[in-house]
Amino acid sequence: MKRGRGINRVHGFYRQRYRCRDCSAYFVSEKIPLSEEAFEYISKPMPSQDWSAYAKAQNSEKLMVMGLLSELSDVLQVDEIKRVGRPRADLHEMIFCIAMKTYTKLSSRRLISDLEIAKKLEYLKQAPHFTTIMKYYGEEEITPVLEELIKLASMPLKQIETDFAVDSSGFSTSQFGRWFDHKWGKESERRLFYKSHIMVGVKTNVITSVEVTKSFGSDCPHFIPLVKATARNFTIREVSGDKAYSSRDNLEAVNKLGGTPYIPFKSHTRGNSEGLMIWHKMFKHFNEHKQDFLEHYHKRSNVESTFNMIKQKLGGNLMTKTFVAQKNEILAKVLIHNLLVLVQEYFEQGLEIDLPTEAQKAGVINIMW
């Protein structure tokens, strides 16, 4: 019986493995040359780092982030809903406070000193109570606002980014959940985590669209919503992703938007188009021009760099307790990451940052509050 292949890509051959039906002994065939083209990594010169601009960006980062957050919150057009009871806190100020808490990684009590400084700089009318900040972390109305602000914060880079990559990563919580091990038939407890699915520009690592889900479930269904959300503000030339996103629908979605999908195919995949010629075209390219395909595909490494940037700078664990609050915390991390990218590009590339103008082009964000 055939039992799979032992592939040696370094020397360009494989051995077919077999197992005897009678005695269960294993044996292998002679060396068989690989028909596919072996991928050769070609090193490219690293771009030179402008350390002077980098130092200026780091020195001015916090003040510029506060200023950009203030501009973003002013873009919101809030329609107040008449409610019974105590009036709600100002939405603009709550967005500012939530984002600053995520940026500083301080507790809500220790954050108050930074908010008093923001008040003196006229970014806030008053520093709210620390319990008020944590309360609004768990408000469902905050979630769509953060999602829109993330997209708005990426728009100054729409003339730079045309190639994109997609992937997901987990953010751990302080909670534990039941885990059943089917192999050993035992129950255990493991730390819960939530996944963020993002699409990033491969040049600046700016995040153009994001979705937050619970840990279980496939990544593949989230590909099309991320691509469509990015296409509203950006011109898509290429999209790269790993094998988890390999499906005919995903490739066709990128093709309809005028882009080229560089998603590798699984070992059991066939090139039958089934009415979608982009599947057959990319399957043929993948098998006949492996070197060229993988050079485009490996732009996907930038999305791994993006997750590393977020977790190193803003932390990979979540301090909130409920799912809504944890989702908002992840979105706040993504928003701050985009603002940090803008600050860096402002000093290194001379990027013009005019968020109010970008907001007018995209349309006013109306919020019922």
Structure described in brief:
By secondary structure, this protein is α/β, with parallel strands linked by helices. It has helices spanning 51-75, 91-104, 108-120, 130-137, 142-154, 223-231, 248-256, 277-288, 290-297, 301-314, 323-348, 355-362, and strands spanning 2-8, 13-19, 26-28, 32-33, 76-79, 163-181, 186-201, 207-214, 238-240, 260-262, 365-368.
SSE blueprint and pairings:
Layout (H helix, E strand, L loop, with lengths): L1 E7 L4 E7 L6 E3 L3 E2 L17 H25 E4 L11 H14 L3 H13 L9 H8 L4 H13 L8 E19 L4 E16 L5 E8 L8 H9 L6 E3 L7 H9 L3 E3 L14 H12 L1 H8 L3 H14 L8 H26 L6 H8 L2 E4 L1
Helix pairs in contact: 1-2, 1-11, 2-3, 2-11, 3-4, 5-11, 6-7, 8-9
List the main descriptive attributes of the protein structure presented here.
single chain; 369 residues; alpha/beta; Nucleotidyltransferase, domain 5; 3 domains; five-stranded mixed β-sheet; four-stranded antiparallel β-sheet
